Amino acid sequence: MKRVVLAATLAAALLPGQSALAGGTIERACLKADRPNATRNLCSCIQKVANATLTGGERTKVAKFFNDPHKSQSTRQSDSRTDEAFWQKYKKFGALVSKHCG
Description:
globular; mainly alpha
């Protein structure tokens, strides 16, 4: 049931013309990072997946990874249970981004 709800939420978030939370923290960080493949469409798609799968605090944390990739490594290698749980969720988020955003 949880997967069905997630799939429905994600599908709704990715519908063309949807601009819920357009210019969110992740989208802005993605564009600001000025990476060669970071197009407005890609960054917007990443934001939409984040909106459907991550909490506000988690989105803020992910946005910080764009500016300081070392933070992601520190989180991944942390012994904290909270960081470990977040990292598992982040990996699922990344898989969904790969699937839906290219």
